[in-house]
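Residues determine shape. We examine one folded chain.
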Amino acid sequence: MALSGIQILKLLPRTNCGDCGVPTCLAFAMQLAQGKAELSKCPHVSDESKAALSEASAPPIKTTVFGAGGNRPQLGGETVLFRHEKTFVNKTGLGVLIDEGMSDAAIEERLAHFNQARIVRVGLTLRPEIIAIRAKGEKLGALTDLVAEKTDAAMVLMCTDVSTLQPVAEKYKDKVPLLYAATAENADAMGALAKDLGLPVAVRGQGIEAVAELTKKLEAAGCKNLVIDLGPSSLKEAYEGHIHVRRAAIQKKVKELGYPTMFLPFELTDDPKMETLYASVMIAKYASSIILSEIPGHSLFPLMLERLNIYTDPQRPMKTEEGLYPINDPGPDSPILVTCNFSLTYFIVSGEVETSRVPTYLFVKDTEGLSVLTAWAAGKFSGDDIGMALKKSGIREKLNKADVIIPGLTAVISGDLEEELGSDWNIKIGPREGSVIPSYLRQNYGA
């Protein structure tokens, strides 16, 4: 049974040192009891206390990791229902299905799509992580060989026949595949295989009660790394089921349901567009992993972008470091384009400058991650501040002339900026929209 905050406090050093990021040991103990903090944050807790507190400090939804190398999706580990309570931790794993019924050409094409599905967004590379391999017979081994040879995917081996699954799982145990799936019919054999090889295993049942019985049985058999598949028959059932699992694990501390989940939208529809729609719903509520029947870019990109938006800290804007960024090999006659350090703004503006092919210095002003207009309204994108930052950068010594281009929507700061920099700098009012930057640069600074 989980310990109360007062019980946890008795096992802490009670020094109120604040090294955990919380002012007092009592406050830290309360956070541990609520599953909103990790024991590792306290550097002074004794080994004896660690052992006693392991249950209380563990997240209500356990973390399951599979895959190898640089691609190891972490599923679960969440402690809250809503991201405004605490940032969600482990993003939904996205993957694609390879089925034994597909032609060789179709399989090759799908693997190529998986390898090519890389999108850079605000400095991050977004990509799918998982390939699920579904086969009932000997083809499971051949397909797994192909996926392991041609991709770095974290693999899900989808075969309920343990005798067929065993040799493949043994061969690739170092790649830590997820075994799929333990059911009421094969739970003993699948659990024994997962335990012997030290591999995670998915549990599939029709509904919450069936899944809870299976997870309890597998835990008793020594399987600790589990993933839940509720086997829903409709989107409504999947939506409600995932919410019930999350609530039961976090609010009611139901251990049998304290595991990450998996959702297979292709089991509910044959329409790829509906698949994408279903997946978008379940990324939000609360699928830990989703396997799609195919991953065309126009479907995958919005899902990855949704995932990015949900699994970032809503209280901490994504931002770029302040500084001078040379683009297209600028020289002594190149202009200086000024923007804020909100990551999305930076990458849009830098991309437009690259597109122009005009050598340019991009100066990024620290606005604490706020966009241009928001930063200007908050007094963090003022002429005085930009001028002082530009002078400190030392860029003037590198230039024959110093043309400083500010965003058109903040033309009002030009007077203060000119006063701060002096007559040796030329202040220019730039475009109001990022899409106009290439034509503006080519027209005024092109060769």
User: Anything to note?
Assistant: The two ends are 73 Å apart (CA to CA). The chain has a mean pLDDT of 92.
